[in-house]
């Protein structure tokens, strides 16, 4: 081992002392081998380079720990430059090798081997100089790699000076912008910028000069062909070794695909939203025309058609005619003087065979122009080149009609449009089926209402006559039995009269003909009389009235309000067959009066309470108690129309309390004044 003080320099290599001193002090690695290749000298710089101190006279050819070819494969000793020179005795050009040091570091060296001859010209050994070129080599590799990366990048990587003149142009730039390197280097970057965006370059250069990087700026640049390309660009300042900004590097990425996919996504979402809203609105709509207009409008806009229409299928045994029902995108007058589409080869597949027909250019369709009377498109008809027809099929398989779309340009309708309309047509068909049912039910119900109005009206006249005769008879002297029967008959006629009157009132309400005669009156007086009358007439129940100790003035139709209260009291008695008392209270609460009618009867379940005010509703446990289920419906209508409300509190099996709430007349007057 060499000591640290004494550099690990070994041997004389057969040199003169002066020459040796020269080499010892040299910063360049030198070593010498004898004619057999044995190491006879190396200097301090060589030790540093090898990262080790070889053993003089024992090691051959070189002091490196491992010698490699440039690509990293091991180099056999006999192939080292020195052994070659020794073998041939001829000087060699410098050569490049790679070595590995014991600490694992790699180095690149230039080797200059020189044969040494004695005075007689006999080969004595080799003197070798090693130059460490690792730094340069790495720089070179780095540059080559960078350049390869730049060249292989799909992004455009362009450098330019501060005047915007292009200095370099990679393969990606060529791909994106269509220009070759020769066509761009030396020219201004503005050649890529659309005219209306030229000011962008000034802004970019201004920022670059101030050392500011521009990150992912999305804009439009021009292709050689003139086509616009959406790009995302990043521009960074380029500095020289002194740190001065001398130019800019620009990376531009073509974002056409992204923009297109975003647009497609947006379109997809918009379509979904439309589908959703159309679906919802047609399922909520029970009117045929409303459904079809909504469907026609939405699908015409979705398909981008110039016009869209729904034709109703009027097929019968004699043939098919199609009747225009709804239209979108064109005035209806166009069709006014035109015959409706007929069973031509173009329409029949849709209306008869339930087929979707999509044609890019209908004028090239085999059947086009052959059918009389128009032989093609009728005069005045807007031009239809793209054609799309989709059947709307009912649940029972019948074609309700067809949705037809047209556009004056060819190839306007896609498979996507077709699918969208098919979906909507299917939803529309369900709604149309439902609406048919609804309309049937509605017309039945209207017929029923008409019948009730007519029947009750017709019943009213004979009833009044019968009551008149009975009253005349009851005034005549008669035996006890006859008198009893007369009284009972009168009582039944009264009941019948009330029922008929209820039916009539219901019809009036339904047809909006229930009129009120408004007057201001004291409801306390009215209630007093009612309670009195009931106390006399009711044989089964006692009526207890607790009335407000002052007059309670309201404004309303006296007769109808009385009818409402009588309904509640009659019910209280009817539906408490096992009890013998009902209660009537009148009080003033704030700006309202409240009439409460309470019984201890059969009571109501929550479900029954919910349905109480629907017409003809009767709870399931009312068998044996007569009624039509109209009293509460009428009561509520009357109270509602007086600006009041009705509340029910009840416990099943325990009794019920109905409260009528009406505004006091003062309040009403105040409100009128305020208005
Ligand atoms: P009607 O008495 O002719 O059946 P209403 O419209 O007056 O018709 O009442 C509707 C239904 O409400 C009754 O059939 C009955 O089931 C229930 N109802 C009304 N009042 C009471 C009450 N006080 N207690 C229990 N159930 C009642």
Provide keyphrases for this structure.
675 residues, alpha+beta, Beta-Lactamase, six-stranded antiparallel β-sheet, 18 helices, elongated, disordered N terminus, binds adenosine-5'-diphosphate
Number of helices: 18
Question: What is the CATH topology assignment of the largest domain?
Answer: Beta-Lactamase
What does the overall shape look like?
Answer: elongated
Structural class label? alpha+beta
Which strands sit side by side, in order, in the main sheet?
2-1-6-5-4-3
- Ligands in the structure? adenosine-5'-diphosphate
Give me the Rg, rounded.
54 Å
CATH superfamily of the largest domain: GAF domain
- Characterize the largest beta sheet: strand count, sense, and whether it forms a barrel: 6 strands, antiparallel
Proportion of residues in extended strands:
15-25%
Distance between the termini: 117 Å
The number of E-state strands comes to: 23
Mean pLDDT: 86
The low-pLDDT segments are: 1-8
CATH architecture of the largest domain: 2-Layer Sandwich
Whole-number tally of structural domains: 4
**Percent range of helical residues:** 25-40%
Question: How would you describe this protein?
Answer:
With 675 residues, the protein is an alpha+beta fold. The protein folds into four domains: 17-138, 2-Layer Sandwich (Beta-Lactamase); 153-254, PAS domain (Beta-Lactamase), CATH 3.30.450; 287-513, GAF domain (Beta-Lactamase, 2-Layer Sandwich); 519-674, Heat Shock Protein 90 (2-Layer Sandwich), CATH 3.30.565.10. Helix content is 40%, strand content 24%. It has 18 helices and 23 strands. Strands 2-1-6-5-4-3 form a six-stranded antiparallel sheet, with helices on both faces. It has a five-stranded antiparallel sheet with strand order 8-7-11-10-9, with helices on both faces. A hairpin with a 5-residue loop joins strand 10 (228-239) and strand 11 (245-254). The longest helix has 61 residues, at 415-475. The structure holds adenosine-5'-diphosphate. Adenosine-5'-diphosphate binds next to helix 15 and helix 17.
